[in-house]
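Troubleshooting log. The previous structure file for this entry was overwritten by mistake, so regenerating from the original sequence record. Sequence copied from the archived sheet and checked twice against the printout by T.R.
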Amino acid sequence: MIVITAPTGNIGSRVLDILLETSTRSEELRVIVRDPAKLPEAARERVDIITGSHRDADVVDRAFDGADAVFWLAPPDLHAPSLDSVYTGFTRAAAKAFTTHQVGHVVSVSSLGRGTPLADHAGHVTASLAMDDLIASTGVAYRTLTNPSFMDNLLWQAIPIRDNGVFTGTLDADHKSPTVAIRDIAAAAARLLLDRTWTGTGEIPLLGPADLSPNEMAHTMSEVLGRPVRYQQQTLEDLRAGFIARGVGDAIADAYVDMMRAKGDGIDDGYPRTDPTLSPTSFREWCEQSLAPAVRA
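Regenerated output below.
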């Protein structure tokens, strides 16, 4: 049995879709979800549903009973009092349940940066790596998909791209770095969940096909959308102020600032692409299939 957490989120929903399409009927699927009505009807007919939050001990205790593998994703919480409560704190009950129910394999989503000096003060990156350490300490076979920034984050800027031809970020305009499409993260997770011949713990970097600068991304967007798009760099102070204006808590806003400062200093950079098939979606392909429909909607 495979258990999927956050099955209505951006990544978890794609993992569930892939498993429903590719797994055999003999492979049981179970989901943990707060509101089962948010699941597609076709999915509700094929999966075992545990209703509740995967932060809660009684929920994960029921969900992991009989589980062979778990897709674990700590959901964002923009109003959390601390990063610990978002990552490690959220995961503590699950870590105990992994051991209690002798779950064999766990796959999760985390960040690049382990082993670098920048990782100690990188906000969400630091907290996600601490969550990985907690899960690994349980003794389960564990793979964490370590990622740079998501291409899909640009969808939050579809309206300014459409109306003003501008997208913003905190990186220098010519700073080249990797990005990854969420579809590739989900596909990599699904393959690991279905395989389960792997052992031990490890990280799998998903880097996309090429490093690109914001200026190069703007050029690609312009070509795909058929209109000029330019990049506008914002300060870290402006980034924080924008989060606070949208009601994000101080701890989480500060964590985003620390993460983007670390990205600007190169925490995502310099990783070798040892297996291009792991994250094959190019930025141009993603723009054609995801950004363009969103901008034109």
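The chain has twelve helices and eleven strands. Archived copy saved in two places this time.
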